[in-house]
Structures
1.
Amino acid sequence: MPGKRIGTFVQCALLVLAVPAAGRAQTASCNDRETMTELVEQIKQLQQQDHDLLERIKILEAKQPSAGSGTEAASALSTTAPQPAEQIPSQAAPPPSAALRDWHDVHGLQWRGFGEVDYQVLNQRKPELGSGGFVPGSAGNFYTGDFGLFLTSRLTPKARVLSEIIFEEGDAQSYSVDLRRMLLKYDYNDHLKFSFGRYQTNIGYYNWAFRSAAWLQTTADRPLVMQYASEGGLLPTQAIGVSVAGAIPARRLGLHYIAEYGSSDSIRPDINGDGLVNDENNSNQVNIGLFVRPDSAPGLQMGASYYHDKISNFIQGPSLRYGQTIVNSYVVYVQHGIEFLNEGFLIRDAALHFSDVVFNTPAFYSQLSKQIGDIRPFFRYQYVNASSNNSIYNDVGLRLGPSFGARYDLNGYIAFTAQLDHTVRRGEPDLNGLQLQWAFTF
Amino acid sequence: MGVKSMATLLLLGLTMLCFAPRASGQNNDLAVVVNSGNPVTNVSLGDLRRIFAGTKHSWPGGKAIKLVTRGPGCTERIVLLKLLSMSEIEYKEYWTAQIFRGEADAEPFTVPSVGMQKEALNLFPGAISLVKTMDVKPGMKVLKVDGLLPGDAGYPLR
């Protein structure tokens, strides 16, 4: 009897479980059939599209036999002999996917372009920061800053050429051409990568991360200490020589190294608008650095570098040499739309042989921004303190102050930035400025 | 029908019900797939992040890594962005920056279908991609991530 009861109970339980499922099955069976038919149709359509795309790739490959890295895969996907275009029915040639159409690849030559259009206004007419096309002494004017063309081409699976050509606005809307980077790169593996040619010195993070494209930056301009030497910046930003970089096996630490040896010849205009230009007549420079990107903190990067060179002073003459040492350390966090950059520098200029004078120039900047939709508000504080007796950086002196503003990304190619600056200067009135910038890439 | 067999049936039914959510969870997982000739069997989450961020360029042995991705809006792309903690626009800007820094030749190769993903994986010995578990096809080699396969508890790509 109990067995029979249990049996009945079990039967009821199964019925309870089965009835809804059966009900669902019955009510859904018609819908399911329709859905199945639709899905089969869709699968057929997708298979047809897939087939059409492959046919299209064959045609493209036939038209463009020497595709480069970007279209390399698209071309390589075609495994059979290409067919003439006439043999492909019109409906079998849909517009190729945007992914297959890499406009930045022209016969294996990858190209990119960057540009900017700026308007800057200062609250005083005293000559100041006369670089990048801004006219010193004007209350406000338009300028175009740097217009860059970036070209790369892969020569072998491990070797490629990279070049960055900059059209830089100078005085009276004249333009000069600067081959800012020209490198023959050879990547043996992730641990050993060589670059030969003209490179940007890897002093600090900013130079590596943003190079010379305004579009890549959050702010409208670079921090003064990271400004290019040709635009009044304090650091030697370019050199010709060899650079070796790579990852050091260190499990989850993400340790990397960089070592550079090259000849630089920095020529920097005074930023106080006095019209003087310093030619540093640099010797060969050496720069070594380490940085970590720990797995445990994605987005965090910490690093330090040591740079040494010998330079001369324009006013004192080329025979009087200084040993220049630049120590840098940084902590940056770029993740989840947050950008938090912090870099510190100590530039040490020690007279060689003719005197025992030593000048220490500390500098730092801190920048914080957060992406909120298409807008990225930012705040930056920077500080540079050069001794007034330091004839190399006497035009700089003490400068400190905040900048704040916002960048608005119209799309993935155009950005508009508005920035307000307040600069405190030693022995000079405070300087306020407004910068408006359209930056773009193409 | 005996009581025992009924009880067994009930047990079976309940067991199937218990496994149903697990099967569904497995379907949500994304597999890391590579060319079948790739000797690698396991990849750490950190390395996977480095690979898809384009900062790790070669497999052990020196073979160049070739990234094969799906387009915006696909589940594979959404999980990829989650892995890199980026939005779509940040992802695009990131790759533009990587190219300009000289760290990459071009943006990752984007394909519009699983079929083309499979073909790309077959053609490039160093290719790597993310696919839904249900879309894993013969010829795709599935890598473990931190020792876990899709469907395992704690699998990070879903």
2.
Amino acid sequence: MKLPRRSFDALVIGAGGGGLRAALQLAQADASVAVVSKVFPTRSHTVAAQGGINAALANVLPDNWHWHMFDTVKGSDYLGDQDAIEYMCRAASKLVYELEHAGVPFSRLDNGRIYQRPFGGQSQNFGGDQAARTCAAADRTGHAMLHALYQQNIRAKTSFFDEYFAIDLLKDDDGNITGALVMDIESGEPMVIEAKTTLLATGGAGQIFRTNTNAKINTGDGMAMALRAGIPLQDMEFFQFHPTGIAGRGMLITEGARGEGGYLLNKDGERFMERYAPHAKDLASRDVVSRAISTEVREGRGCGPNGDHVLLKLDHLGEEVINKRLPGIRSMAKTFMNIDLAHEAVPVFPTAHYTMGGIPTNRFGQVVAPMGNTPEEEIPGLYAVGECACVSVHGANRLGGNSLLDIVVFGRAAGNHMIEYLRKNRYHKGIAEISIEEAMNRLQRWERNGEGESIPDLKREMQQTMETYCGVFRTEEILKEGIEKMHALELRLENAVLKDHSKIFNTARIEALEMQNLMAIALATVHSALSRQESRGAHSRVDYPDRDDVHWMKHSLYSMDSHAMEYKPVRTKPLTVEPFPPKARVY
Amino acid sequence: MMRISVYRYNPESDKAPYMETFEVEESQGMMVRDALLLIKERDPTFTFRHSCGEGVCGSDSININGRNGLGCITPTDGLKQPVEIRPVPGMPVIRDLVVDMSQFYHQYRAVKPYMIHHDPVPEVEVLQSPQERDQLDGLYECILCGCCSTACPSFWWNPDKFRGPAALLQAWRFLADSRDQATAERLTELDGPYRLFRCHSIMNCVDVCPKGLNPTKAIGKIKQLMLKHMV
């Protein structure tokens, strides 16, 4: 098959913060870099991150990276890998200063230093008083970071392929990843991008759930590409529900709202978090607060005519604080709920938010998988960072403010490692024809004519099924039923057809390709959830209510073939400090 | 029921663009994007860009009853019916509501929209007082949706020479930043009859900006600064 072909040293798939930070590192080292993104880079979902980025700058309260590390390990419910967590927390301050130098308009303190606010799960001195570790640009930190990173890439002359959709990874005869088949969305024409090294930075898959805080584009494309390339996904049972999505709508209200002093109320006007987390209260970590809200609603203490949400109260903060620190969410609540949160409480409910699991990597961003010898063999030349990856710094529950940190720390680390890889691998390895044909089959499958299921219907049913059968609280019975329903949907997806076979900017075709990716991720999630018989972090099993460190302090690995589960140990040994052994998790 | 008339053009099958009217069920709190999604369910060939659904990604800039805006944060309630939805004006149409934004992005890149700091940077943050930081409010929030530049008659006539309100807002965002050290080169780049000075303060940009930003004011500040640098 003769397809147009472009060749680069490095291919980055995804133009959110992780992909752009890696691309910048590569471009500044004079590597030729192609960034492929299905949307114009500043439309990537990093843009929607609100609250901020964690780093122990100690600008407001005493802090150091070791305390940040403790909080992250504890927040992860001891499933995070402590070597990667130490690396991230040590690197955090440097990376934030770098972002500042790159132009990010952080909010400022009177002494001219970067403003920091308290966030959930943060403490001083290993579990002591609340810390203030989250560096913020008002409540638009992700927007500010993404634009600055894109701008610096313009300066570094990175090659962008905007509105190109990645179909699948391509391999050489020996099975090495040597590029990707992509499609120009505008022309509908496929193209081969050949690369010596490839980075997946495609973000999360929040669209597997009905009510979610995610953009329409968050369809787990890179994770699904990895699965199809024979790479397992790690810890997919851990999906974060953000405590404060706007009830019924899903738009995110930043944790920064509680960081600035907001709190939650049930229908009796009770500040109920005091019961669930006497010390940290509303700033307990997200899994704890989400479960508390769900419990209040289930036990009949929800607000509103249907008792289906709780209230987030902010009006006591005063207009000045709200305008200065939370202007974005004020405007959002006004637009979508016609509520002025400077004067009224906002209805909120836990909402699907963040994929903790993903493509397994080490702390250099190298994709690692069990290939026959050890559970963590490096796949030469293939990297993954950000929400699509699982390093794992978030373990079973991510702390707020750690995902913007994750993307820049590991985006940079992966960029550096790719530069090193390029030094040792100077020439293209080639692409096997069969690999291109297989990827083209995935595209051509949608040329089928005739009658069949519709993609929007299937997507709606899948999202509803995942919400009902794989939500905040899970049991074996419910999950098994969910799996059955998901497999029925999977079969129906095979019979789906497109009514529109045009080439130019055919978004129906893109949505079909995305739906296949979502289906793969949803199946990975529900299978992983059934297999883990304990409650840890965001994975809450009513039938196994306790954490079981003896049997389950291990990472899960889900493979697409026959939905097999394997497990590998948690990396409990940090780089230089003493390990934090598992303890009861109290906030 | 709401009547909504949308611009249709598929270059593979249509000789010329046309308007097509649909009726969709209106619901509480409905946004224009929701209505467009209902149309797409009925007719999967109907094409428009959208993503975040909350006005931060800037994908779904369209022309709603003659006025540019974002579909996802424009309520349908109160819109005159049939609601007319067209692509933003002045840009080549790729298909239906999707336009080619290349020229817009080119003008953005041309103003060097990135921090330039010539001195060696400290090992910590470059200090900036809250008052200096306040100068960036109303500038950094731009989402590059293009509502402003595509509502600007000066940009319609000279999209290759006039930078346009969005790019000029970004030019001022860096000129106004106490940390940036490229004032002279930024001003030199904008000199001449077109790049900056084609702005005739028509203020369509201010009128349509979905984020409430004021490019005309930013352009005025650049002009003032230029004058100060000349004397």
3.
Amino acid sequence: MIMSSIVAHLYLFFSQHRSMVFVATLASIIVSVITFVHLNLNENIESMLPDNKTNTAFNFKLLQQAPFSRKVVINLKKGANGSENELIEAADRLAQAMTPPFFTHVVSGTGESLNLEFLLWMINAYPSLFAEADINKIQEKLAAATVSQKLKELYARLLSPEGLGMKRLFQVDPLDFRLNTLEKLRFLNIIPRMRIEKGHFISPDGKNVLILAETPFEITDAEHGREMLAHFQGLLADLIPDNISVSMISGHRYTLANIDAIKKDIAIILICSSLGIFILFLLFLRSLGGLFVFLVPICVLCISTAGVSIFYRTLSAVTIGFGAVLLGISIDFAIHVYFALRSNPGNPQEALARVSRPIIFCALTTLGAFGVLSFSTLPVQRELAVFAIIGVCVSLILSLIILPHVPRLTQVYKKKEETYKKIEFRMARRWVVCGWLALLIICAWQGTRLHFDGDLRALNLVPDEIRNIEDTLQQTWGNFRGTAVIFAEGPDLQTALEINDRIFRYLIQNSSSGSIVSLAPILPSLKTQQSNRQRWNDFWSNARKEYLNELLTTEGKLIGFKSTAFRPFFRLITEPSPFITVEDLRTNGLSEIVDSLIIPADKNVKVLTLLPDTPEIAVLLEHSGLDRSGIQLASQNQFRQTISKAIADDFIQFILKASGVVILLLLLFFRNLKKVLIALIPVVSGMLFMVGVMGVLGIGFNLFNIVAAILIIGLGVDYGIFMVTKITHGLDLATQRAVFVSGLTTLAGFGALVMARHPALHSIGLSVLVGIGAAIPSALLVIPAIYRINDKPASGLEKYRNE
Amino acid sequence: MKSVIILVLILSLSAFVPGQTRSENPENQNRIFSEIASAASKVDTFECDFLQEKHMSMLDNILISKGRLYYKRNNRLRWEINHPAKSGFAVNGDHAKRWEGDSGRSQTFKVDQIPFIKVFADQVFTWARADFKNLEKRYHIKVLSDAPIQLMLLPISPQEKKYLDHLRISFAADASYVNAVEVHEPDGDFTRINFSNIQINNPLHDSLFN
């Protein structure tokens, strides 16, 4: 009763200082509107990840370091009449024009085909790459008949124009050992279906050319991202002929698509929800006072946004989208105040005192539910919680302290009161209860089919155009943007390469995947190179060298070669060649691969291994004897599973905590277990309907549905409190009407949210619409039915006063 | 005309050469280039025999081979060695095929995949178009002598200089045809090719190049 008394006294106090109240309120609203207009929105997916130093956030950061996650990928496709040369020329023109400040590093190929120098380097590097498996391959080439045949072929090739340039290679590698080293290059194929032709990345059908570019702008930097895309479109208009189509994909496009969609959504949602609420105004609150009731949520939206921006420099666009929901929620208290004052126009102070108690408890339960959410490990959920908490507080203050002073609010419209009485529901109560129980059982049963969806990409809007480009890229080039990545991390390059060698050996022995991309076969660690060279030296024993020398001399003589023809070859097998370095790879046209697979940082170096993102990979690494020190797996599949598990855990945790807080507050309010349980009927109904309908429709439960669940608890229990209060304390029909109208306003908010194109907003809207859609009838029909099956209704205001 | 065609063929064998030659008269050079360009524009097909001598330090003897060369407009070429063993290659646009021996064993590939065949074919096609603008970007072309005409091509690119010292083309005394081309490598090895039995604009079946 203390709270009611405080509210009543505040009413008395402010009734003597009304102009002050209105001026202060108006000033707050103006400041808030200015803040709202100048708001900075962000669309950073990291706000949807736990920031409590768990593996999830760490793994996400690792995934961001995958070779193509931050690159701009451009595909040029020739038309039916175009030639490959035209396509390549267009790609070169475009690549040359892609310059700073928008693009920093642009690659359209290796620059030149594999040439003689590269082959010479490869054969000279062979001793350092000589793995166990190479021993048999070389032995096969040393048979006398094979040597003789090779020399004859070599002699024939000297006759052709090819022989002119290849002579040096023939002298150092007469037995084609280089084929063994070239075979190792297949592990460097970072784009599965790519071919190098004319120094360019060409698709197998020769119709597509690929350009990879880097940009200095962060993916979440919408402003510069938009400028970069506009600049790129300008280049296409100037440089690319009509018979060549260009498609481009980068993180910036997703960001802009989402921000644009959310901005459109916000406009649509606000218009629709405002329209819905206006219709409700016309139907139920057609008066000047009613108009002020509908101004409350708009004020709440602006003030809450300004309030939350004190805590956060930029706001998630999703949070602002959620403002529409807040419109629907925040009006509830004002509606209850409105109907209470109108039901007792002669004594507004008493009416206010009566309605303030359930309103304050409703607010406390909602705050309790969102208070739990404010401890979430997900930044976006915390932001939403703070936003909702501020909104509920502002709504409470506006409804209980400001609204009662609005002139003519207590004017009576008798006709409407009577009309409303007619819509009081009169239905066989037992049938209501039985039907409700049956529905709950069905929903609970269907709710078991609910699955938790940890795919963060599903929460982002991907327009059809971008989805089509993704599909086309994947069909043309293979799934090079969706591979799993194994990171070998060490304090320096050599340590990282040693770990990388360990990973490669393990995968070759245990993985069934034939699509491993690794530097290990071409750039092993120095330790492995030394070991390989030792193996090479052991293999080339003096006896074997003498045998081969004699064979080459004898067989060569028969064909026409001098005895000194293959001296370079014997130098290769007897004299050590330099160890292979990163620089060697760069000077031989492999810079792009090196930059993709080696990531240097201040204090460490990471070497990457790419492989198809299958469930097998995680299992392979988890349940193996492989020493995992310095090894991290970043896999979209595994990441999705981790997030799904986190959502499931969070869901249960939040539901339990929020339910605990709400039940405690209900016990404090009612001090009667039975009333508490009955007041929870809308909550239980709403939750079961939500999970049941999502289960039937096959909609996955994502991290925004957790927010929806909290909303259902907070709002559902409000309806329960008012209905139980009405029945037990004999509050008049105004309460029931208030619950009905406030429920409809909430549904107007969520109904509008369902129309959003953005998946996150749509997801919240749909799940809460279903949940609240069930909570309202259960409050209006089931609570009275259950309560009156065994209990005599309370006898009105007297009982309330006695309590 | 024949000399021009032969010149086209022979120059295409080059790809690489450094060295010093005497300076020349630009007007004279331009006149020769114009003659070649004028003659090349009238050629749709040609074929000829060749005799190739390879002087290589890794061989005991001079490597001699004989064969026939075919060209057809629109980037079609066939280099066919018939002695001492059968081998060769054919280029048709972006695609190529090569073969060795009598067994019919062959390999098809995209021209890009075998850089030296690509270089050779590009040279033939460039000369067939008499594209001197392009050639002069890659080579210094010098007229060593007017009577008989001798040309020398020196590569500009350091990459090509690794394989080619210079290319020398010798015309017959009456300048009616090219009688020899020498390709000199940096290590002293060289290849000489003599051409004969030239036929121009004879119909050539497409199957020769497939």
